[in-house]
Structure formats: structure tokens, C-alpha cells
Design brief:
Length: 471
């Protein structure tokens, strides 16, 4: 399961308000959404290859973040306000769960194809990989049929998403699924979170111990259609330990069950929880948002401590560090990585590293045929030059807007180094790499309106950042 760091209901409404104001003055080819990232993935076979889902497309790098390519939404098969869940499988394939089915690329993002057969037109709400075998993927489809009947199914692939078969039987027809995960220590153990379709719309966890052949249901306290439960993770060593984020209106909570969903304990609450990550060894857990900063706890005690004020929009934890999505203007980068437990972050994506569509994608591919014509409008909207200098990305040591010595950023998101060159914006050096330097780039590229709206949004967000501690 990929934790939905931006809830499609609550966050979508917030973004819609900002987008309505932006849309009138943005290029027709841009979707008008506030530029941000909501999911970050690291290739299980190549830690230098990173994929980021943003509000304006999918971004990829093969060199650890020196240069990034942009894949437009249209080439993948979606548009507008949709935020598909993505995974990278063992051979580097990328799978995207769309409202209209599954889109997959097996050539590093050039050609995207929509799956046929039983997945055709199925509304996919989550997709995941089996940790013990990354070439094995699972996905969750949940579609409302005629009347009150709901079709909720789990599908599985053993060949990196090339062929699929249903895993077990349909879930109950009155159950709407929202997230899916398997237990790393026992792939036959599947979890699906969601809610019942009346009369109380009680939130529930469905558990299977036989890869979907049978299902057992457990209520998740405090959850319903207004407080949906989203799976966060399953402990890598104990299949009975499962974490769920309960999404509420201005009051999110983290719950844990240590008996496979039979009983639950609330361990943390905050204004919002956009990010969740469990360390690879299951020893630590990180949560956060742009409203509450970054909090980390040992899983033995689940006593959370705030480690930074970073405006978290997504989290991923691998053996190489804790990766986070952030707000570039407020925090100095769009994506960064921490190797000290979240105390500091080194930027891996700043907008001056974004170089346009992948040059290796020929016009015979969906990306090569579609994205180049859309890039100029997107680059203008983002306030970036639109191309990178030939042969090099940002200069060595540059961290594109928020470097400290060695390119590290403090947990507050305030940088102190000098801006990068070679492939980035030609900014005035007096900006000293702070978010204001990015604003200068945006104005120079015709992005003054977007910059002004970002400053106002940042001011509102900083005034609202009063973190709530663990319960």
C-alpha cells in the first residue's frame, strides 16, 4: 500500500479553493492546481532512481536528483484533480491506479498503456507491491454499481504488472474499499480499509489470511464516511501490527492494532496527517503535515517527539533515509531526504532541476508524442526556464534553493547556502538560496501572480502551524 499522503476528499477541497483563483490566469494547458508533490517513490533496485507524483504530472530522476524529467498527466491517462497512487516494481516498471483503470509503463516512463480485461474501466483506489518480492504487485478496485451495490476486488500480478488475476473473492457488496496492503512477513495476509455503505457508514478493516479467499471484518473506532480510515503500514516483522490514519475534518488521528485489527488504540492526533512512514526495520514511525510539522516515535513506545517544522506533504522511508515532500517556497525544496531521523533534510528536487519531458522518449511513445507540446505552458506556470543547459544539471554542491554546508536543510526549512547554477534559474546571488530566490526566478519567468498567491498561502500556513502533541 502507498499511504495516501494527500487525502483525495479533504485536500482536494482545499486545493480546489486555491485553484479556482489561479485558473483564470494560468495557461490553458496547465490544470491550475497549486504546484506541490504528494507521493515519493524510490526504485527498489536502484536508489538513485526516484519518482515523484506532483499536482502537475509525474517527475523522475535517474541520478539521485541532479536532473529531473517531467511526464505529463495526459500521457499516463488522467488529468484535472486526480491523484493516482503509484508504485515502482522490481524491474523498474511504474504502475498508476487511475479512476479509469490501470496505467503502466515498462520502459522508464516513455510508453504508458491502460490494462484491459477485468481491470478495464475499474476504479482503482490503491496499488502496492509485496515487500518480499517487488515484482509482485497488488491493487484495489472499488466501484459503485447500480443502486447501492459496490464492487470491491483485489487483483494481483507476479510479473511487474504485465498480467493480472483476481486475488480471491469479491469483498462484501456493501463495503467500499479505500486502501490496501499486504504483510511483508506474510504475503498471504491482506488488509483492506474502508467503510460500510450504511446505515451508520461505519469504518472497517477487512482482513484475509489466505490471499483474499476469505475475509473477516473489524470495526475501526471513530471512523465513518466523514472520518475515513486509511492504511498506513503493516509492521515488517509482525503481520498482526497494523497502522491506520483516520482522516477527519481538521482532526486526523493515528491508530494502531497489535492483533490484526480486532482492537485499536489511538496514539497520535493532529490538525492533519499528510505523511506517514515506517522505517524499514519497523523500529520508528514518522508522521507529519504542512500544518503540524514532522513527528517521530519509536514503535516500542509510540511516544512522539516533534523533530522539525518542515511542511510535510508526503513521507517515504527506505534504507537510504527518510524522504519528504515539502512546499518549495516555504521550505526551500519540493522533495528532500534526511539521514539523521528528520533533524535535517538535503534537497533532492528544486524546480530549477526540472528539465522537461524525458529526451529519450521518441514521438512513437505516449510521453514523446504528448508531453513536449505541453511543457512550455507548464514551465511558465511553474516559473522555470523550460529547459536545462546541455550536458549538466545544477552545479556540484548546489541544492537549488535551500543548501546549508553540504546541501543540508534544517528541520525548519530555512536554508543558508548559495543558489545553484548550470541548468537552474539565472537568479540574483543575493537571494542566498532562500525561498525568495525562487520567487525571483518565478517573476523573471512570468510567474509573478503565482508567486504572490504562494506568499499569501505561506503566511496563512505559518500562522496556522500550532502542532498538537501525542495523546
Amino acid at each position: 500500500m502507498i499511504f495516501p499522503s494527500s487525502n483525495r476528499i479533504a485536500l482536494g477541497l482545499r486545493i480546489a479553493l486555491a485553484s479556482a483563483a489561479l485558473a483564470a490566469s494560468t495557461p490553458a494547458s496547465a490544470n491550475g492546481r497549486y504546484p506541490s508533490a504528494g507521493q515519493i517513490l524510490v526504485d527498489p533496485a536502484d536508489p538513485r532512481r526516484i519518482v515523484l507524483r506532483a499536482t502537475y504530472g509525474v517527475l523522475t530522476t535517474s541520478d539521485g536528483g541532479e536532473r529531473w524529467s517531467w511526464i505529463c498527466e495526459e500521457s499516463i491517462g488522467y488529468s484535472g484533480f486526480e491523484d493516482p497512487m503509484l508504485v515502482i516494481t522490481g524491474d523498474g516498471s511504474i504502475l498508476a491506479g487511475l479512476s479509469s483503470g490501470l496505467s503502466a509503463t515498462h520502459d522508464r516512463g516513455c510508453q504508458w498503456d491502460i490494462a484491459g480485461g477485468g481491470l478495464a474501466d475499474l476504479t482503482l483506489v490503491d496499488v502496492s507491491i509485496d515487500r518480499a518480492e517487488p515484482s509482485s504487485a497488488i491493487l484495489l478496485g472499488s466501484s459503485v454499481l447500480t443502486g447501492d451495490e459496490i464492487l470491491t476486488q483485489v487483483w494481483a500480478s507476479k510479473d511487474d504488472g504485465r498480467t493480472w488475476a483476481q486475488a480471491g473473492v469479491d469483498l462484501p457488496s456493501a463495503f467500499l474499499g479505500v486502501t490496501l496492503d499486504s504483510a511483508p512477513s506474510d504475503p498471504r495476509r491482506l488488509y483492506v480499509s474502508g467503510r460500510w455503505n450504511g446505515p451508520t457508514f461505519q469504518g472497517a478493516l477487512q482482513r484475509s489470511d489466505d490471499r483474499g479467499e476469505t475475509w473477516e471484518s473489524f470495526d475501526i473506532p471513530g471512523s465513518d464516511d466523514r472520518n475515513l480510515p486509511y492504511l498506513g503500514a503493516v509492521d515488517p516483522r509482525d503481520a498482526d501490527v497494523v497502522y491506520v490514519r483516520r482522516d477527519g475534518d481538521g482532526a486526523d488521528a493515528l491508530l494502531v492494532s497489535k492483533d490484526g485489527g480486532a482492537t485499536w488504540r489511538e496514539v497520535f492526533h493532529a490538525v492533519s496527517l499528510l505523511g506517514f512512514a515506517l522505517s524499514p526495520d519497523g523500529a520508528r514511525i514518522a508522521v507529519g503535515s504542512d500544518m503540524d510539522g514532522l513527528w517521530i516515535a519509536p514503535t516500542t513506545t509510540l511516544e512522539f517527539t516533534q523533530v522539525g517544522r518542515l511542511g510535510v506533504r508526503c513521507l517515504t522511508w527506505t534504507s537510504d533515509g527518510l524522504f519528504a515532500c515539502a512546499d518549495e517556497l516555504a521550505d526551500g525544496f519540493t522533495a528532500g531526504v534526511s539521514v539523521d531521523g528528520g533533524e535535517t533534510f538535503s534537497p533532492i528536487l528544486t524546480l530549477d532541476r526540472l528539465c522537461g519531458p524525458p529526451p529519450a522518449c521518441g514521438r512513437e511513445t505516449s510521453t514523446g508524442a504528448t508531453c513536449p507540446a505541453l511543457w512550455a505552458a507548464t514551465a511558465s506556470f511553474l516559473g522555470v526556464p523550460g529547459r536545462c543547459d546541455a550536458g549538466a544539471g545544477p552545479s556540484a554542491g548546489a541544492s537549488g534553493g535551500d543548501p546549508a554546508a553540504g546541501g543540508a536543510s534544517t528541520g525548519t526549512g530555512v536554508g543558508t547556502g548559495a543558489p545553484g547554477a548550470g541548468g537552474g534559474c539565472a537568479c540574483d546571488a543575493s537571494g542566498q538560496g532562500r525561498p525568495g530566490a525562487l520567487l525571483s526566478c518565478m517573476i523573471a519567468a512570468g510567474g509573478a501572480l503565482l508567486g504572490a498567491r504562494r506568499r499569501r498561502a505561506r503566511g496563512l500556513r505559518l500562522r496556522a502551524r500550532e502542532p498538537r502533541g501525542p495523546v
